[in-house]
Specification:
about 450 residues; alpha/beta; TIM Barrel; eight-stranded parallel beta barrel; two-stranded antiparallel ribbon; 14 helices; globular; binds flavin mononucleotide
Length: about 450
């Protein structure tokens, strides 16, 4: 039953993905102090490109260099080093696969390492203490500038040779903040009813399309739900999918959660919490509950956006289940992330019909117990916990970028988190110093 995994997929714009396996976006944090691509990114992506996936989506690249998600994010604007960017893209397309740039702005999810005054739709602080400053509300004119920034980045991506772009509207970043009534309290035409909250996303998609022209893949990553009461809920996601279908996008990727309610890496149990009026899929079985975190939401989204290819990301690990998902028409593309950190060429093995499950190192990472567990009642602890587990994956990405092999055994994540925070603080300081030096020179 592996045939569909290897089947090409023609997107509405005419571009063809060579198979149905996609590397979902993972921040690499391997850019330099000028936010440009580096040889480490080239090494990493050449390895992934040669690994056999039909589509690689970059970790988020930023559209505005004042606001980073972390040091080492690449920024696409008029100051970008195009030679370095082209070298990265050449490495990332070496295997004949597609390589898309994921365009993002962190909004209030900009850490204090990078800004004491982030911007957001409204001045609503992220209720995760410590790392995030209270944002200020964007002026209307700034909203227009940000839409133009997304379009400018898309144009830079196309000129550098990326074979498509993905607009990141998920995981609680700026566009997702506009979509959620918890973070968007605006009373103008950018807030309030869903059509207003979705306006920023739709205008970004239109501006990006205008910048790249027809015949070029434009995708969107959307939360199936934020999994928070009073937030962006599943019914909202279905409506936004309908709106996006009318815009003529080429691929819709479904994920879920935010920094406040981390879900995209499986911390949320399937069928639990926050969404309005959705019964879990009656076919839900052990595998379904364990993997494919968001598949139960894909049906309604698919029905609302017929003709838009659907990518579902998060949790896929069993080849037979992956094939069944494609054969059942529940998804067209399967987004996979963490297995790429430990076994960069697993897609080739999967496409060759091997029945082995994909590596799932996340299952072996040691994180806290009891009050400090991933299911702690404290949002702060849950967020730190998720970050601790993620830090181990950043470490493997760093190793691949250095031309080293990934670590075989996931260990305790807290020391890795502390190392990550130390590295991030140091790089953020160095980056600030280099920006000041550049302005002075
Ligand atoms: C280290 C790491 C970095 C990530 N960075 C991003 C990112 O930049 N953009 C994004 O949309 N999702 C990001 N994600 C989420 C993944 O794309 C994916 O949705 C998630 O890991 C679940 O898929 P998996 O179970 O196959 O790992 C990241 C995940 C990890 C582990």
């Amino acid at each position: 039953m592996t045939t569909l995994l290897a089947a090409p997929l023609t997107l509405p714009c005419g571009a063809v993905l060579p198979n149905r396996i996609a590397k979902a976006a993972m921040t690499e944090a391997l850019g330099d102090l000028h936010d440009d691509a580096t040889p480490a990114l080239e090494r990493l992506y050449r390895r992934w490109s040669d690994g056999g996936a039909g589509l690689l989506i970059s970790g988020h690249v930023m559209v505005d260099r004042r606001f980073l998600e972390q040091a080492g994010n690449v920024v696409l604007d008029d100051q970008t080093d195009m030679a370095a960017l082209r070298a990265w893209v050449a490495a990332g397309t070496h295997g004949g696969n597609h390589f898309w740039a994921q365009l993002n702005h962190p909004g209030r999810q900009t850490t204090r390492f990078h800004s004491d005054r982030p911007v957001a739709p409204s001045a609503v602080a992220l209720p995760v203490r410590g790392f995030f400053a209270r944002p200020r509300a964007l002026e209307e004119s700034e909203i227009g500038e940000l839409i133009a920034a997304f379009a400018r980045s898309a144009g830079v991506a196309r000129r550098a040779g990326f074979t498509g772009v993905q607009v990141h509207a998920a995981h609680g970043y700026l566009i997702s903040q506009f979509l959620s009534p918890r973070s968007n309290r605006r009373t103008d035409t950018w807030g309030g009813p869903l059509e207003h909250r979705a306006r920023f996303l739709l205008e970004v998609v239109r501006a990006v399309r205008a910048a790249v022209g027809p015949g070029y893949p434009v995708a969107v990553k959307l939360n199936s739900s934020d999994f928070q009461r009073g937030g962006f809920e599943h019914d909202d996601a279905v409506e936004v999918a309908r709106m996006l279908a009318a815009e003529g996008i080429d691929l819709l990727e479904i994920s879920g959660g935010t920094y406040e309610r981390v879900a995209f890496a499986g911390q949320r149990r399937v069928g639990a919490g926050g969404q309005r009026g959705r019964a879990p899929d009656p076919r839900a079985a052990a595998t379904r509950a364990r993997e494919a975190y968001f598949l139960e939401y894909a049906h309604a989204i698919r029905a609302a956006a017929p003709g838009v290819p659907l990518m579902v990301s998060g949790g896929f690990r069993t080849p037979s289940f992956m094939s069944e998902t494609l054969h059942a028409g529940e998804a067209d593309v399967l987004g996979i992330a963490r297995p790429f950190c430990v076994e960069p060429d697993f897609p080739a093995r999967l496409l060759a019909g091997s029945a082995d499950p994909l590596p799932s190192p996340e299952a072996r990472i040691r994180i806290g117990r009891g009050w400090a567990s991933p299911h702690s009642p404290s949002a702060d602890l849950r967020a730190y916990n998720a970050q601790a587990a993620t830090a181990w994956f950043y470490r493997q990405i760093e190793r691949l970028g250095a031309g080293e092999e990934p670590e075989r055994r996931p260990g305790a994540s807290v020391p890795v988190l502390l190392r990550y925070l130390w590295r991030e603080g140091r790089r953020a300081r160095q980056r600030r110093a280099s920006r000041v030096a550049r302005r002075v020179a």
